[in-house]
């Protein structure tokens, strides 16, 4: 499966942005989908994940209450709605696909997109 993330850009603190991740090669419903991010000089970290149907989701503490992961399997697309953005959210955001639910570790995801840069200005 191939993943293509998009939607990054510049947003002011307190603003909103929606990231998209389009899958191809195999239907999105075959995978658990996750979002990760990597800030400059830091390791890549887990942000959010969605179960195959989208009925189950879980988040990193930093994302709870502000970010929402969702998916439209008919469109083979997963989204990350970012609200109340903070400067510390500035990072390259990556979508990833895996086969096991409940995973926060990078190595548990098998496929990765190329990343989209989100910059939050203060």
Summarize the structure.
Helix content is 0%, strand content 52%.
What can you tell me about this protein's structure?
Strand 4 and strand 5 (45-50) form a beta hairpin. This protein has strands at 2-6, 9-12, 17-24, 32-38, 45-50, 57-59, 67-72, 77-82, 91-98, 109-112, 116-121. It has 122 residues and is mainly beta. The strands form two sheets. Strands 2, 4, 5, 6, 9, 10 and 11 form a seven-stranded mixed sheet that branches. Strands 1-3-8-7 form a four-stranded antiparallel sheet, with no helix packed on it. It is built from no helices and eleven strands. Helix content is 0%, strand content 52%.
Name the descriptors.
122 residues, mainly beta, seven-stranded mixed β-sheet, four-stranded antiparallel β-sheet, globular
Principal-axis shape equals globular
Query: Helical stretch count?
Result: 0
Biggest sheet, in brief? 7 strands, mixed
For the record, give the distance between the C-alpha atoms at the N and C termini, rounded to a whole number.
37 Å
Low-confidence stretches: none
What pattern of helices and strands is seen along the backbone? EEEEEEEEEEE
Mean pLDDT value: 96
Helix-strand makeup class: mainly beta
Percent of residues in helical segments? under 10%
Count the strands? 11
Percent strand:
over 45%
Task: Determine Rg (CA atoms, Å).
Answer: 13 Å
């Amino acid at each position: 499966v191939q993943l293509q993330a998009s939607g990054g850009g510049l947003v002011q603190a307190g603003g909103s942005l929606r990231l998209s991740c389009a899958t191809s090669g195999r239907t999105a419903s075959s995978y658990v989908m996750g979002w990760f991010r990597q800030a400059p000089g830091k390791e890549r970290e887990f942000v959010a994940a969605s179960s195959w149907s989208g009925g189950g989701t879980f988040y990193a503490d930093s994302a709870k209450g502000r970010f929402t992961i969702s998916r439209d399997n008919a469109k083979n697309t997963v989204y990350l709605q970012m609200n109340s953005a903070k400067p510390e959210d500035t990072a390259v955001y990556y979508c990833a696909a895996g086969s096991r639910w409940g995973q926060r570790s990078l190595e548990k995801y098998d496929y990765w997109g190329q990343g989209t840069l989100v910059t939050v200005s203060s």
